[in-house]
Amino acid sequence: MNPQMTYDRIMWILIDAILAVIIISFTLRLLRLLKRREVNKASEETMRWTIIFDQLLKENDDSTAVKETFKIILNDLEKLTKLKLSKSLTAMEVVDKVCAKFPDKVGERLIKLYKIYEPVRFGGRSPNREDVWEFRSKLDELEKICKEMVGESR
After folding, report:
1. Which of 5, 103, 127, 137 is surrounded by the most beta carbons within 10 Å?
2. Model-level pTM?
């Protein structure tokens, strides 16, 4: 057997292997990038709570806007954290579990929102102007914090 021919075969096999590794590497990077974009896009779409709240205020009474927006927030944060929570949990239990997955600044806002939501939902109380204003204010803060967190994970 010709040593030159064996050497040529080895070189071609080595070149093919290197090219295969490069192609696989680029493909994996592309897939990760696409997945990251999908997650970020979905996260940004779910965190439009102030827009939803404002729309609900226009279309419904203040109580309905607070109750519906709070449910949406909890659902979105549950999806964002990928928690699989039981439907039998109370709203406060869900808040506790979600807060455990986020920094304190998120939990603080979420608990303040809950303190406005609770008497509206369970006490049948209609929120006054100050409650609506504070709910919107804390909602806006929470939305901004969550969007920053999603931006940092990119």
Report:
1. 127
2. 0.65
